[in-house]
Amino acid sequence: MKAKKLLSLALVAVLSVGLVACGAKKDSGKSQGDDKTIVVGATANPHAEILNKVVKPLLEKDGYKLEVKVFNDYVLPNTALLDNSLDANYYQHVPYLEEFNSKNKTDLTYTVKVHLEPMGAYSKKITKIADLKDKAVIGVPNDPTNESRALQLLAKEGLIKVADKKLLTKNDITENKKNIVIKEIGAEQLPASLPDLDLAVINSNYAIEAKLNPTKDSIAIESSDSPYANIIAVKKENKDSEKIKALSKAVTSPEVKKFIEDTYKGAIVATF
């Protein structure tokens, strides 16, 4: 009986050591564990395309391996950055990052501004804004910063008037002579929703993914002096690491600027 008890204790000890070893192995696989591998989260277009086609070979020359994880929403890339699944992400602008930090009590930061994606208004039913009928239904992104951008664009086009404040929702519309109905929809769902709407204000990354050219297909577009340049976001404690410096240098290289100009032909504008 005593021998059986001792054998049981020995087995428990062995299993415990094995579990600890497995746990250590799992932790070592996180992005921060390899100084020569850079894991970046990005939305598909243009971010992942820029990273894979231009930034990856540039980093390889400097001895780094770039892994790009593609996301199709605007929340998970930041949560993945916070839990160290990513070294950086590339998909958002500064106002969105600031709003995320404020809402979630986090302190993510950024290193460089890379490009501007002008937000555009698209329609399958009309060819100019003036043709919008009374009680037209307009789709806008449902996150605070991009909804604000959309409403500001509609205000610039004279469709509505809005309150003088930084973040806007449809409740901040102060004048709406055409009785326009604002429908808040996930940014990634707007292109697919376009046939059911009279107008949709769509972020350029999702527009491009849906084969819409912001400069050719939109019937209204943000001005080029928009403050919404897309950035490389990182955790504050990793901002000055060697691999983040290498990433920031590569993504603001002349090669990336030329690729943006040649590939997107004004639909996306380099900001460096």
UniProtKB/TrEMBL annotation:
Pfam families in the record: Lipoprotein_9 (PF03180)
Record keyword Lipoprotein present: yes
PROSITE patterns: PROKAR_LIPOPROTEIN
Lipid-carrying residues in chain (S-diacylglycerol cysteine): C22
Primary site of residence: membrane
Keyword annotations of the record: Lipoprotein, Membrane, Palmitate, Signal
Cellular component terms (Gene Ontology): membrane
Signal peptide: 1-21
Membrane topology: Lipid-anchor
InterPro entries: Lipoprotein_NlpA
Subcellular location: Membrane
Keyword Signal recorded: yes
PANTHER family documented for this protein: D-METHIONINE-BINDING LIPOPROTEIN METQ, METHIONINE-BINDING LIPOPROTEIN METQ
Family of this protein: Belongs to the nlpA lipoprotein family.
The protein's name in its UniProt record: Lipoprotein
